[in-house]
Amino acid sequence: HQQLCRDQNIRAYPTLRMFIDGEPSGDYQGHRTVVEMADWLVLQEEAHKKDLEESEKTVEKAAAAARKRLDVSAEEKEWNMKLQRHRHRQQANWDDGEHPGCQLAGHIMLDRVPGNFHVMARSNHHDLVPHMTNTSHFIHHLSVGEPAVSRMVEAGRAEVPTEVNEKLFPMNGNAYITKELHESYHHYLKVITTDVDGLETVARRRLKAYQILQNSQLAYYRNDMVPEAKFIYDLSPISVSYRRKSRHWYDYLTSMMAIIGGTFTVVGMVESGINAAVSRRKRYF
User: Fold this and answer.
1) In degrees to the nearest 10, what's the CA dihedral of 50, 56, 62, 64?
2) Mind giving me the DSSP string for 200-261?
3) Run of H or E residues at 47
């Protein structure tokens, strides 16, 4: 179904995409296991079909059947059950009253090598138990590169393709909520250097944009460990460059003249061949 994949902008296999009333609702980003895929479908069904009768909710039955057929260890079953108990957090709304805490803003200078940075509870001026803190967090803005690039892209001063613009700030506006102790979200970021026309300063210095491919997972900690919101980043060895090229009017004119000249040449060759054949035939008669 090549045309369908092109229409839906599907670039990798396998891709699991949810459609609601014929409109795409989102892609599955979890692990490629039957259990997790089925659980994701159950979550989507609960989020979008709450008014259905119990007999109409067939996805939940399919997920239960998939888990029953799989031969998994006791540890995997316990892990899956714990994950099921916290599924509702993936669709929870952020309430400032439920999450009083700190607001962090600033910049971090990173080396061009894989690494990580993390946020955790630790203070010499507050009386707290670090390993029992809640690390729920809301990301207003997270990007890689110079701040001027973000301002230029948001102001429309750079001709950034739509599919690239969505990946420059993929975590903006996302909430990662934990309601139990000893757990936190870890974020895995693949950073891709991107060169786009129009990203220049007043001094004509070219700037680089950085696309982010992110995947977030809930991590569990031992009771004596301090949970942390962790961001693990890795630089892609491949860079992407976008260029917009246009042709001048005289290029079109030259191409048109070449086509016309080529047509006359072909017609002349055909006419010469016909005349030669007719003359030879007359000679024989």
Assistant:
1) 60
2) B-TT--B--EEEEEEEEEEEE--TTSPPEEEEEEEE-S--EEE------HHHHHHHHHHHHH
3) helix 34-48
Decide if 131 contacts 184 (C-beta within 8 A): no
**Of 4, 22, 25, residue with least CA distance to 13:** 4
Reported as a single tens digit per residue, the pLDDT across 139-161 is 888 999 888 888 888 777 777 77
Shortest CA distance to 139 belongs to which of 175, 185, 103? 175
Q: Which amino acid is at 68?
A: K
End-to-end CA distance of the chain: 62
In angstroms, rounded to a whole number, what is the distance separating the alpha carbons of residues 204 and 200? 5
On whether the CB atoms of residues 49 and 57 are closer than 8 A, the answer is yes
Q: pLDDT tens-digit profile of 203-251?
A: 777 888 899 999 999 888 888 888 899 999 999 998 888 877 777 778 8
Rounded Cα gap, residues 244 and 25, in angstroms: 31
Task: Provide the b/e sequence for 139-154 (b: ≥16 CB within 10 Å).
Answer: beeebbbbeebbebbe
Tell me which DSSP letter residue 285 carries.
-
- What's the burial of 226, exposed, middle or buried (CB within 10 Å: 0-12/13-18/19+)? middle
Q: What is the CA radius of gyration of the chain?
A: 30
Nearest of 64, 7, 57 to residue 35 by alpha carbon:
64
Taking residue 188's Cβ as centre, other Cβ atoms within 10 Å add up to 15
